[in-house]
Amino acid sequence: MKRTRRFGGWGFTDTKVLPPPAALSLLESTLGKGEALPEASPELFRLPKPQKLPRLSGEVKTDGLARLSYCCGQSFPDLLSLRTASWRRFPDAVAFPVSHEEVLALVQRASEQGVVLVPRGGGTSVVGGVSVPEDPRPVVVVSLERLSGLKSLDGRSGLATFGAGTPGPEVEGALSANGFRLGHEPQSFELSTIGGWAATRSAGHRSTGVGKIEDLVAGVEVALPSGTWRLGPLPASAAGPELRKILCGSEGRLGILTSVTVRVQPQSVQEQGLAVLFPSWEEGFEFCRKLLREEPFPEVLRLSDAAETEFGRHLVTAGWAATVVRDFLFSIRRFSRACLLLVGASGKAGKLVSSWGREARRLGGLPLGSGVYRRWLQERFKHPYLRDAFLSSGFGVDTFETAAPWSQLPRLKEAVRAGLERAAATLSIPILLLCHLSHAYPDGASLYFTFFWPLRREEALFQWQGLKRASLEAILQAGGTVSHHHGVGRMHAAYLEREIGPQGLQALKALAHALDPAGILNPGVLFPAEQA
Amino acid sequence: MKRTRRFGGWGFTDTKVLPPPAALSLLESTLGKGEALPEASPELFRLPKPQKLPRLSGEVKTDGLARLSYCCGQSFPDLLSLRTASWRRFPDAVAFPVSHEEVLALVQRASEQGVVLVPRGGGTSVVGGVSVPEDPRPVVVVSLERLSGLKSLDGRSGLATFGAGTPGPEVEGALSANGFRLGHEPQSFELSTIGGWAATRSAGHRSTGVGKIEDLVAGVEVALPSGTWRLGPLPASAAGPELRKILCGSEGRLGILTSVTVRVQPQSVQEQGLAVLFPSWEEGFEFCRKLLREEPFPEVLRLSDAAETEFGRHLVTAGWAATVVRDFLFSIRRFSRACLLLVGASGKAGKLVSSWGREARRLGGLPLGSGVYRRWLQERFKHPYLRDAFLSSGFGVDTFETAAPWSQLPRLKEAVRAGLERAAATLSIPILLLCHLSHAYPDGASLYFTFFWPLRREEALFQWQGLKRASLEAILQAGGTVSHHHGVGRMHAAYLEREIGPQGLQALKALAHALDPAGILNPGVLFPAEQA
């Protein structure tokens, strides 16, 4: 049975995840009391009449609930606007094409008629990638959910082709039935789709080992106003610049991906994992950096800083015995600022996990065994649900991520902390900032930040804007990227030029203009639409 | 002391490599006698007066020898035209900038004044990438040889920045002095440059393990008419499409690379290598395919087909005892069509080499120990010199390479063989076709072909064109790429659209036009200039 997505929140209506009282107490003792946001309620919206649309092929819905359900993604401003019933930009219709040919017909008709298309996979963008833009033209959201499933499998080459709208569980389900796996497991895994992953350069929990999605994409099929663009799978080439890489990260602006061919590997059953407690961030950081010097890499490598470790400790409910042991451990002076590392791998690399544990001990870490790791594995897709609960408890929360070379990461982490604290002081609010290192590479790693603040309902957007702006400024000044795996969307579009330079922006605009002369494909993502 | 490059042939004047008589006998018995090409001689050329140039900054040479020495690369038509003194397109000058700023000034002045620039690294292109194009405008070759050396090293991140004109030995020399290595070793290693590698998406003998150059490039600096484009090193990002990847394979058409930051690894001393004889191509092929299922990969993996193994056997001079053993081996019926595999690795993976040998034995192979491998390692950079000797002995010879998924490679290899044999029959000449698999990936591999034919001096270009065209047709029809690591250059430019589609071509043209509006940067590579 098809599960129902929650309106104005994460995931499915059949699942609700509440933080334990200890976590809320910790937030309240750090941040004070905030003003809870109301739950989102479709009844509170009065939608404007849809603009008249040309006849479009395939199923197209224009009812209010469809227009409301597909109007935006899961960013903080998206959720805030939905919960306060202040969202104003609705699609005039939602299209549900069932084939590449139907998408192509839609794209071509829309280009001729000046209809804006917003392609949408799982709708989980946290950077405004699927939020309906302000545009005087009619806007149609193109949901790719019916372009789903395994289309072909080349077992000898380890290549699998999926419809772009295939969500994570269906991807792995179809592969596992054939003895393969992709191993791409972003936190949005249960909702997001393979096409969305490719379009946004997604990373998953196992990316340190299996690679980011752009490393896994071997071929693509794209619908464009000029027709079908098919780039078949190739292991490598020197036939000019790699155009498959241009489509990864194109966020729907350079065409609508309708199918994706990915590199898959034989299924692996020997997953091993371990948690290690390091007395300090610096010791854990060095362990991670050194681990990436030689292959095989771990699949999962995730080092929480002291604040995140402490917060996580309050998030996990455990039996009283485990709690006593845990609390005793953190009470030891040496571990009072402890940082938790999770490391895991499968296949041949899985056999190395225990030796990594020994190496961690040599570098000052305390291996905690596999229980904490396994628990995290089981719980990880539930964590995004917590955000809704925090918003309903008066705490604002958002996340952002960046990446930089190893040598720059300490400065970058410090710059973000300082920048956010300055912004919070300006706003006269306290904040709680958590950070983990994940997605490590031989030459650097990603830092993932979570920040909480006490909500003032009338000022919530203003509060968020101040904090968000400070984080981007700090990242760009410290040489980080505006995003490691969330993408650019509309939220980071105005900042991209500072990272890629005026020539980079010029290159992207030239590509968009060449492939989509009418400018109908997801305008506003990557770079502001008015600059096009 | 600076060594002198050979005019109209490979490498340095202080080195000459002659094939052993056995190899020439084998060619003669297979192909009959051909007409030897004369050696190239600068005295035979009468250069047209150079066009008048605007004043350009930095050292600029306009003498005949410079214009002659920098007029083309090392493709078969290049060498043929030089040896027969029929080359007609000479630069009006050769510029030798010493800094990014000088390159930038050159590019900006040339763009204003309508002067065509042909950027040049080691000048080893075998696909016309550095051959002076037909163009009514003045043409200046921009030699990057003085932008050489290590500019900075970030040891903690394993990132090294080099001037674009740094040749292979200097790259590894500077890194090794600091305890690092890049491991990028194309056959042109002694001559080609890090900027040239990046611009052409080069691969090296160790690419199966260390990756192609586009995997190793973390950052670039580019000179453009609009100014400097700098993309600093990042381990990964989701900030839109990866523009560093657009510059890899741009072949000078999207800007002149002036420095390149690459991912380097700690130096490794434990290199292990092994040669294995497989009774058939199919058995060796399966061994390679399976080896790439799990990391760590070997660095070197190179499987010669029976014809190449047989030819190689005649190419290597060995002591009489070794020769007796070898000949005995090949006389055994089971090894009469034997295929030689070379496999090698260093670091942790080096420890796996002996277990790979055992696995090869289990799959029907006969491990021959490390001697043959070590010999190949020592001799490999001399092999390109042999081409000159073959041309001087009456045998035409050229190479090309492609890549495809594992499942398509058998059909592709057969299509190339059939296509070339048909073309040879049409030309009424015999050919000898050798092939090896190298640069393997989990999802496929590269096939590298060498073909010999008996030269008719007056028809040599016509003969080559017939064979070359047949190889490209076969590759494209069988789903291979027009090049795995030689690049597109001017030679494959007319074929690229069939691989990347009209939209791919449109995308490249849009990029070129946006970044180089005057169309002065290496026109004719990637796509024909008249289409721009």
Automatic annotation (TrEMBL), chains A, B:
Q: Where is the active site?
A: 448
Q: Which GO terms describe its molecular function?
A: alkylglycerone-phosphate synthase activity; FAD binding
Residues annotated as binding FAD are: 119-125
* PROSITE patterns attached to this UniProt entry: FAD_PCMH
Q: Where is this site: Important for enzyme activity?
A: 302
Q: Which domain of life is it from?
A: Bacteria
- Name the needed cofactors: FAD
Residue ranges occupied by any FAD-binding PCMH-type domain in the UniProt entry: 87-267
The protein's name in its UniProt record:
FAD-binding PCMH-type domain-containing protein
Instruction: Give the species this sequence originates from.
Output: Thermoanaerobaculum aquaticum
Annotated substrate binding sites: 387
Keywords tagged on the record: FAD, Flavoprotein
Name any Gene Ontology BP term: lipid biosynthetic process
Tell me its family.
Belongs to the FAD-binding oxidoreductase/transferase type 4 family.
